[in-house]
Design goal:
The protein has 2 domains: about 5-210, Alpha-Beta Complex (DHBP synthase); about 235-320, Rossmann fold, CATH 3.40.50.11030. Helix content is about 30%, strand content about 20%. It starts with a strand and ends with a helix. The protein has helices spanning about 10-20, 40-50, 65-75, 80-90, 120-130, 150-155, 200-205, 240-250, 280-295, 310-320, and strands at about 5, 25, 35-40, 60-65, 95-100, 115, 135, 165-170, 180, 190, 210, 230-235, 255-260, 270-275, 300-305. By secondary structure, it is an alpha/beta fold. The protein is globular, with a radius of gyration of 20 Å. An 11-stranded mixed sheet has the order 1-8-2-3-7-4-6-5-9-10-11, sandwiched between helices. A 4-stranded parallel sheet has the order 12-15-13-14, sandwiched between helices. Bound molecules: threonylcarbamoyladenylate and magnesium ion. Magnesium ion binds near residues 138, 139 and 147.
């Protein structure tokens, strides 16, 4: 099992030293836990791909403490990008800009662009201050799996990695990944829905195009099946839930039901109650999917949340990918 270290000056110093030596360290951010390595060390970055079993062409986000650190990895900072970061940094907004040639290509999956984000979580910020540069970090799940929102989730995913250090910053407050916006085109394009809503981005920049390519597109990580539990998972409307569960009962199949308090779920099915507000739902959905996956059920049945606006759009995106066969 990896070592889980509570957040302290000593653990931050230790982790920063590990990063400087070229090791990979897992750490908390306000969105999900990340698996980090020094952006400027190509061998260290290669270890992230190997650990995560991530395809080499899927680029990573460089985490930075502030704008001046961001400018050491990316160029093309315009008024548009300044406006975005003044409003959203530190926080869950990732910006794609041209990559500086000093940044090893592997840190961006070989692309000429690089994604940058300044996280808000105090632990992530302390780590960035302590190591002074940039930390490239994907979500700390195995490729395609459910993102981790606690240190224990990470430790479980990498149970075979006793050398891995996990910096425990508590459960992630937001619980859903950052929004990824591409500023390399003439118009801003959202490549991944996330914790900063489209409504908020439109207030700042005007109308926003959303283009989330499936499989190998501009955001190679946005494959349609993603964020997925290991068991079969389906999504159903509130009105269909009773019938689906009756059918399961008749077949002797046990469902783990991720649902709202208003839904009826009778044994042998197991219920996982979700908050009805978007913030609460986002903060707990990955933990619920993981617990459902480990419940011994035959399949996971998710009740489709009724709302479509704001943060719910990103939640629907994740649920759709988690339930794609
Ligand atoms: O909230 C988050 O963003 C978390 C925490 C740890 O910061 N990180 C995260 O990283 O979700 P990851 O690697 O799991 O997802 C990053 C997404 C992927 O879909 C990737 O393809 C896309 O961003 N991406 C990264 N760099 C890109 C680039 N240069 N061009 C297009 N897409 C890029
Ligand atoms: Mg990810």
């Amino acid at each position: 099992m990896p070592a889980i270290l509570p957040y302290s000056d000593a653990s931050i110093d230790l982790a920063a030293a590990q990063l400087r030596l070229g090791s990979v360290v897992a750490f908390a951010t306000e969105t999900v836990y990340g698996l980090g390595a020094d952006t400027f060390n190509p061998e260290a970055i290669a270890k992230i791909y190997a650990l995560k079993r991530r395809p080499q062409g899927n680029p990573l986000i460089a985490h930075v403490v502030d704008l001046s650190a961001a400018k050491r990895v990316s160029s093309g900072w315009s008024r548009r990008s300044m406006k975005l970061i003044s409003a959203c940094w530190p926080g869950p907004l990732t910006i794609i800009l041209p990559r500086r040639p000093e940044v090893p290509a592997i840190a961006a999956g070989g692309l000429e662009t690089i994604a940058v984000r300044s996280p808000r979580h105090p632990l992530a910020r302390s780590l960035l201050y302590a190591c002074g540069g940039a930390i490239s970090a994907p979500s700390a799940n195995r490729s395609g799996g459910v993102s981790p929102t606690t240190a224990k989730h990470v430790a479980r995913d990498y149970a075979d990695q006793s050398d891995l250090m996990v910096l425990d910053g508590g459960p992630c407050i937001l619980g859903i990944e950052s929004t990824v916006i591409d500023l390399c085109e003439s118009k801003p394009v959202v490549r991944r829905l996330g914790a900063v809503t489209i409504e908020r981005l439109s207030e700042l920049l005007g109308p926003i195009e959303v283009d989330m390519p499936v499989e190998q597109g501009a955001s190679p990580g946005s494959s349609i099946r993603h964020y997925a539990p290991t068991r079969e998972a389906i999504i159903v409307d509130h009105g269909q839930l009773g019938e689906i569960l009756d059918q399961s009962t008749a077949r002797g199949s046990v469902a783990a039901v991720v649902c709202f308090a208003t839904s009826e779920v009778a044994p042998p099915h197991i219920r996982f109650d979700m908050p009805s507000d978007a913030d609460g739902y986002a903060a707990t959905i990955y933990d619920a999917l993981r617990r459902a996956d480990e419940s011994g059920c035959d399949r996971i049945v998710i009740e489709r949340p009724p709302h479509q606006y704001g943060l719910w759009s990103a939640i629907h995106d994740r649920l759709r990918r988690a339930t794609t066969p």
